[in-house]
Amino acid sequence: MGGADEQLMLAYREGDAGAFEELYRRHKGGLYRFVTRSVRDRAVAEELYQEIWMRAIEARGRYEVQAKFTTWLYTIAHNRLVDHWRKRGLSLVSLDTEENPAPEPAGNPAEEPQQIAAARQSAARFVAALEALPPAQREAFLLHHEAEMGAAEIARATGTNEEAAKSRLRYAVAKLKQAIGDG
Amino acid sequence: MADEMDPNVSAAYRELGAEEPPPALDRAILAASRNPPARSWSQRWAVPVSLAAVLVLTVGVALRIDREAPELRQVEAPRAEAPAAGAARIQEADSALKLKAEDQLRARAKRPEAEAARAVRQERPEPKAFADAAPKPAAPAPASPAVAAAQAPASTGSSARNDVARGDIGELARREPGRGADAGGLPGSPLRSVEERTARDAEAAARAHQAGALLAKRRADSPVAAESAAAPPPAPAAAPAKLAPAPAAKLAEQAAQGPADTPEREFERIAQLRAAGRHEEADKAFLEFRRRYPSFRITEEMLRRVERR
Questions:
Q1: Angle at B106 between CA B102 and CA B108, to 5 degrees
Q2: Distance (Å) from the C-alpha of residue A78 to the closest C-alpha of chain B?
Q3: Enclosing H/E stretch for B128
Q4: What distance in Å separates residue A23's CA from the closest CA in chain B?
Q5: Closest partner CB to B9 (pick from A12, A21, A173)
Q6: pLDDT in tens, B124-141
Q7: Which of A112, A175, B164, B299 is deepest in the core (most CB within 10 A)?
Q8: CA B270 to CA B259: how far, in whole Å?
């Protein structure tokens, strides 16, 4: 099944379950990583991930094409994350206190153990730097990489203005660059 | 956006890998998308039930207000009229009091010293509460029944009380807590009683002025009358207007009006008849008096005033 995301969502609104399956297939990975890298606790992240999709399913009757589908979907995700942080009294705080270990970096088994170790160290530093970012900057960075959003779309999805979105993104990249020793 | 992105940073991020949700989660979400969960009862009915509740409450409150409104209107309407009417009455009463006070001053200036002193004593059988507060030279002599009526509880209202800040009415109003000028607008209110009393007092003062002059003249003519006048008043509690001497014709007229309401007043009426020379009527009245009040103690001096000589 082809077509733009928005058309698929409209089709799903009209009762086409297959249209939703296609949408899900296209966006499940990006949204999953966006959530799991925003909320380090894997169980909580998966619960939030499911809730975001459930909200999208429930809101299908009110869906109108006013923006890109990804903007609509990630707006739901942003709101759900804000609710989650508010419930924990964390108001977009750092995720450093959460306990789960950083994910293993993808590595080639054929590589030398030293290279693997170096790659793991580099990935760990990057993950640590990503987690150390202020939540708004991390969110902007993740939206750019996982949803392929520009500053305008990031601003729309997070309820801010474009300049602020640009600024957040610029700061995030600068900090991450410094963390990987490239700054 | 290119300015913000750094290829090394993007590459480092991509090296973190492309995690995917567990298949169980995929299945759960896709199953939900095919059979969207029905909205719960509370979600479905929350808005209609809230609207219905608001409607019921609104109608209930409106009906209640409507039911209670007539009573409120009855209470509010007189209050709205009261300040203006009350202020007008206060002004009238105030000017009447001033006139009366001037009359009394003039009358006392003309009377002999002793007569004036006695008149003051007789005119002031007032309750203690007022005795020390009344203005000394020109104080109105408050009639006891009227004051008693004025002291009866009344509806409160303080808005116009400041308007009554001058003159004797103001003095009275201030001494009667919980009363305001606006209460005067209500029928039968204490302030109205005070106004009526003031008018009566003014009349009585005028009569007293005339009678005082006549009595002084008569005392000079008749030693018996002078002796009688010098005697202590038989009824100190009687109202000042009644106690004050009056011209013979007026006295006789008053005496002929019928029996008074107390033995002392009745006795005084008989004495006035006798003094006016209406002996037949005086005899009849005295007989009737003895029949009605057999236990009334009559001193020798009093007896001389009512017996035919």
A1: 115
A2: 18
A3: helix B128-131
A4: 11
A5: A173
A6: 444 443 434 344 444 444
A7: B164
A8: 9
Given a contact cutoff of 8 angstroms between Cβ atoms, the answer to whether A123 and A173 are in contact is: no
Cβ-nearest to B29 among A53, A58, A145: A53
Q: What is the ipTM of this complex?
A: 0.79
Cβ–Cβ under 8 Å, residues A156 and A147? no
Distance from CA of B40 to the nearest CA of A (A): 12
CB–CB of A53 and B32 under 8 A? yes
Interface contact B21-A180, CB threshold 8 A: no
Find the residue in B nearest to A17 (Cα): B34
B36 confidence band (pLDDT: 50, 70, 90): low
Residues 6+ apart with CB under 8 A from A57: A20, B29, B32, B33, B36
| CA angle at B131 for the pair B130 and B137, rounded to the nearest 5° | 110
Among residues B149, B148, B124, B158, the alpha carbon closest in space to that of B138 is found at: B124
pLDDT number for residue A114: 75
- pLDDT, residue B299, reads 85
Q: What is the mean pLDDT of residues B139-158?
A: 42
- With CB atoms and an 8 Å threshold, state whether B18 touches A145: no
Percent of chain B with pLDDT over 70: 39
For residues B185 and B85, the answer to whether their CB atoms sit within 8 Å is yes
- Residue in chain B nearest A58 by alpha carbon: B36
User: B33 by DSSP, 3-state: which?
Assistant: helix
- At B201, the pLDDT band (50, 70, 90 cuts) reads low
Cα B295 to Cα A155, B231, B286: the distances in Å are 111, 22, 14
CA dihedral A108, A112, A118, A124 (to 10 degrees): 40
Secondary structure of residue B284 in the 3-state scheme:
helix
User: Cα–Cα distances in Å, from B156 out to B160, B161, B280?
Assistant: 11, 10, 54
